[in-house]
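This part of the workshop introduces the protein records we will be handling. To make this concrete, we reproduce a full record directly below.
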Amino acid sequence: MTIASLDLLLVNPATELAERGTWNREPPLGLLYIAAVLERVGFSCQIIELSIDDRPIEDILEAIPVPRVIGFTCLTNTARKTFEIAARARSWYGSQAIDVPLFVMGGPHATFAYEDILETRVIDFCFIGEAEGFITEFIELVSRVHAIEDIKDKLLTRGEIKVSLAFLDNDGLPRSSTTDDVIPDDLDTIPFPARHLYPINQPDHVYNTATVIVNRGCPNQCIFCSRQALFKKCRWRSPANVLAEIKAIHDAGTYEYYNIYDNLTVNRDFMKKLLRLMIYDGSLALPWGAELRADMIDEESAELLAVANCKCVATGIESANENILKIAGKFQSIEKVKKGLDLLKEREIPVQAYFVIGLPGETQETFKETIAFIDGGPLEPKVDKVDFFGATPYPGSALYTRRVELGIEIVDPDFDHYDCQHLICKIPSISMPDLESIWGEAKRYESRFN
């Protein structure tokens, strides 16, 4: 252990994906964006990557500087493991002759389940929503005010500091201090992710798959998604700003592939402008993939994607039944989806198609509709992929917040199973045994493609 100046230590816990083999995708961009914002004003950051390190957290912490703040991100299905790691880290710091860092947590789960998180007494502060707009002010406060009681008093003083976070007050009661004023309106003002920060616990590890996020917020109202609640405003980066980041990924020389998120077709004009810039540049040789809506693909879009070297498209179709799509807030025409898939496949762009089992309205007949749609479409086994996911009531999603209205009963409350690979909900339109039957059939069908 080294007593040194480190302002923020960010911890990326292992996900269920990391257990499937080698892990080469860079950490969540939320961490890398926060690091970039802080580094821009002179604060120091490091990242611990647990997807590539099986050592106990105590052994990892022993070899690195003690930070002022240690921050964790997690998914809902990795929350329990993350709390265990955080608790062990807190205990280890407490056993040393040092000041224990502040423990913070961010991300979707921390945004929507902060009361439960704070009750563990492991995490001191939960960041709510987008932290780039207030992380600098928070670290500055922590740098000049060291006692946690005094920090909380400052946060509760109106006008002292604009933040969006939650904590237990000095009487042990949950308090939140939130404002939309900290949400960045112009995404181009946020520096590119700090991709130079290789994990401090494995400094020789090289990520070869990058992520590029082109927008925040979503105008759609899908009930299985918490994105609308997480990002309260829909914003897009400029195509030129995105192109500059893509060029930086190429210039890094370590990446073999990149994915463009969150949904390239949310703004079709933006997509076409970006693709034309990528084509005009002429130097972008890396293959890439994108998440988009198939019903928004027209002839021009498909051609631009192909010419710009797009090698995979991921699209959420969810169901072929129009009534299920309507209930789920997925306002798309299944005929337009099929047309979009046809256009992509005509240009030999592989497709990864996502479907959800167990949405309200699901029956054995609606499942047959979905299978018939796939069988009658252009998707090819072993070329394209088909993935079936179980409807999951993530905190913040309408499946969770409107569950009584929708007649949903959560039969499996274990967050470890909130990975879309378990049946969590009982719905009125089908018995649980029948839902389990079509789930098994769906996974067998999935294996034909993958």
